[in-house]
Amino acid sequence: MKICCIGAGYVGGPTMAMIALKAPDIEVRVVDMNAARVAAWSSATLPIYEPGLDEVVRKTRGRNLHFSTDVKGAIEAADIVFVAVNTPTKGYGVGAGRAADLRFIESVARTIAECANGPKIIVEKSTIPVKTAETIKDILAANGRGIKFQVLSNPEFLAEGTAVADLLNPDRVLIGGERTPEGAAAVKALSDIYARWVPRDRIITTNLWSSELSKLVANAFLAQRISSINSVSALCEATGADVDEVANAIGRDSRIGSKFLKASVGFGGSCFQKDILNLVYLCEHFSLPEVAAYWEAVVRMNDWQKHRFTARIVRALYNSVADKKIAVLGFAFKKDTNDTRESAAISVCRDLIAEQARVTVYDPKVPADEIRRDVLGKDLDNPLLTVAASAYEAAKGAHALAVATEWDEFKALDFTRIYEAMSKPAFIFDGRNILDLERLRGIGFRASGIGK
Questions:
Q1: How many CB atoms lie within 10 A of CB 108?
Q2: pTM of the model
Q3: In 3D, which of 156, 100, 109, 97 has the Cα closest to residue 134?
Q4: Which of the following is catalytic: 4, 115, 271, 283?
């Protein structure tokens, strides 16, 4: 069997590497039109950072895992074609700001229709709206050569920072297909690949539409939990309660559970906001305005939490941060990844710069150019934003320090050294609740966390 994956990004690269590792008899080819990205996958420095990914790629690359820009050749040779291209939120036209931009999905479908030389199984790996499979099937059916295709939905449920572990030991693998003999055969073919290492009882099969919708709903539910506990964090600050104690108390209820009840400066990443807004747009499209408003409130709460964090910094620093140095520790949207998409740190930095603060950012994995581009825009500069090479450099002479990402190294910093190097009074705002606030206060900091 031969597999082709179109798209060498955060989903396609790690997923195909794991399939190649667990199914050494299957030839896996990952293709992308971005030559620089393909070259990076073939180099010693991978284009994405994920713990454990380097080892998996090293074991499989050149054996049965290959990276290439030859899209046509890979499609022709493949029995199964995974589609793992980007589906960003539309920034233009009908549905701007909410609907998924499916131009890349459509382009790939047309490429497959043009290049296919025989029957193929097409697997949707990208996060897409319900009924996208109909668009793909319609384009493929119009190939004019009588070639038959089966379209499956196989959404990814990877968490950045733990993607390799999630692939090794997934909670579930979801495969949706048509309820026809041909569809069932295609579902079985894909199920048999995952069954090389995933127990059969974790491989769930559904119809196409249930699978497509499940991905959006899963992310919406997780984001909802974060926004819910973040809304409570504001009430905790107003009343003197501790949000971590509240989260622990309610998380002990087996009906609720403890996961995704960690209050913070706000959620980020490529999926949560995009998928919720996509869900909102779908609800509006199907004339369900009340359902749309319910889910949109999750995003509004997240945005409010980011701005509330910055407002708290300004208020504590005597209602002005103009010309004051603020050190922002962390820029990735979460630890153990270099992904900055929708990171809360972007909003925090922009709000502080709007208040004329001098912002210095440090992140152990995000390059300086990417930080500047995310905050200021492409090819723009602002003397109020600088990037430091270490947390100590960032904190030197700072009036306040704001933790925006929960990197483990921040817990091990020498805060006595940091305190001595900062302007006084020295403030710490822990946007991830990872620091010992009482110990910091003992050093001399005016320290505060979220919901405390």
A1: 23
A2: 0.89
A3: 109
A4: 271
β-bridge mates for residue 362, sequence order: 329
Three-state DSSP class for residue 72: helix
Question: For residue 65, which amino acid is it?
Answer: L
- Is residue 298 within 8 Å of 231, Cβ to Cβ? no
Q: How far apart are CA 6 and CA 30, in angstroms?
A: 6
Task: Dump the DSSP string for 172-214.
Answer: -EEEEE-SSHHHHHHHHHHHHHHTTTS-GGGEEEEEHHHHHHH
Q: Is the bond preceding residue 24 a cis peptide, omega within 30 degrees? A: no
Residue carrying the six token digits 């108390």: 249
- Structure tokens belonging to residue 444: 């001399």
- 3-state secondary structure (DSSP) of residue 14: helix
State both tokens at 424. Answer: 């006084």
Distance CA 78, CA 116 (A): 9
* Binned average pLDDT, 10 residues per bin, the chain of 452 residues: 96 97 98 96 93 96 97 96 91 88 91 93 88 87 86 93 95 96 97 98 95 93 97 97 97 96 94 92 94 97 98 98 98 93 97 98 96 94 97 98 98 98 98 98 98 96
Closest by Cα among 323, 335, 318 to 403: 335
Instruction: Evaluate whether 1 touches 80 at the Cβ level (below 8 Å).
Output: yes
Q: Can 283 be counted among the known catalytic residues?
A: no
Q: What DSSP designation does 158 have?
A: P
d(CA 193, CA 204): 14
For residues 238 and 231, give the distance between their C-alpha atoms in angstroms, rounded to a whole number.
11
Following DSSP, what letter does each residue of 124-135 receive, concatenated?
E-S---TTHHHH
